[in-house]
Amino acid sequence: MTATLATPRRAPAASAGARRRVVALVVAVVAVLLAVLLSLAFGSRPVTVDQVVEGITTWLRGETPTDIGAIAVQSRIPRTVVALLAGSALALSGALMQAITRNPLADPGILGVNTGAALAVVIGIAFFGLSSAAGYLVLALIGAFVTAFFVYFVGSVGPGGTTPIKLALAGAATTAALSSLVAAILLPRQAVMDEFRYWQVGNVGRADWGSLGVVLPVLVIGTIVALLCASALNALALGDDVAVGLGVHVGRIRVVAAVAGVGLCAAVTAIAGPIGFVGLMVPHAVRLVAGTDQRWLLPLSALGGAVLLTLADTIGRVIGSPGEVEAGIITAFLGAPVLIAIARRTRMKAL
Known about the structure:
It is found in: Cell membrane. Helices cover 75% and strands 0% of the residues. With 351 residues, it is an all-alpha fold.
């Protein structure tokens, strides 16, 4: 009798999962390109595809077009770039916070991080005459890190230590308190209320190339650090003991990932105000498609966040024409049902 050796085959489930992730990546890239086209084409003045092309090509050549539609396209390029980068950073920040806390409700908005950053900037503007993008960034970083530490401290007090529910409650209470302080500072100052009202809800329309250049190094470094942490975060999801056995320095990776997440959130808040729910919605949506592997989850979340915020900004300009509805309002409108669906689960499971 002749023994037949079976040829090793890749598990069908693993192969199907890999194909699904590749398809998701391709779809996400196409969605980013489509979101960019829609952002450039729609607003208070709709333009044609030819005008979009003319606006982009003349901008690349450093020229000023003569067509009014192409001029409108050129004026939308900075806010489109800011929306892409801000959405990407917020989604990455949310994914990192969910991974290191193993909390499905972790998000820069729910945990109060971006509100703390916004409060610090508003204080600098109202009481110290702050007006530079670099100053905004410094204060936003300080406010974000102080708030993150405070929320984690409050959420870890009491029996049971840190739990998803305690962190979410601490973050919600902190957000409410800090939002009230922002309103108390801005409301009596009617002269600047219109100019700085986006510090309450978030809006990418006020950012420009100068402010983007100031925060870009933080965004780039934070993104690189986040992606480099992916494999260690996968080990962390198996439990601290298993992660230590695999050679991961648990405390160090949590600190590094937390610093990257808070830094990304603070940089966005410094130029666009506190935009919520992007970091909550996008990682959950990506997780349904690509699974929990952080090596795929993080880059796909970055692409998904860019699409979400860019489309939210475009929708706000269209429905608010000739003015606009702030992108933070649109993301809150879309994110509230997601938060309710997560909160209504019978059990709060760790990720």
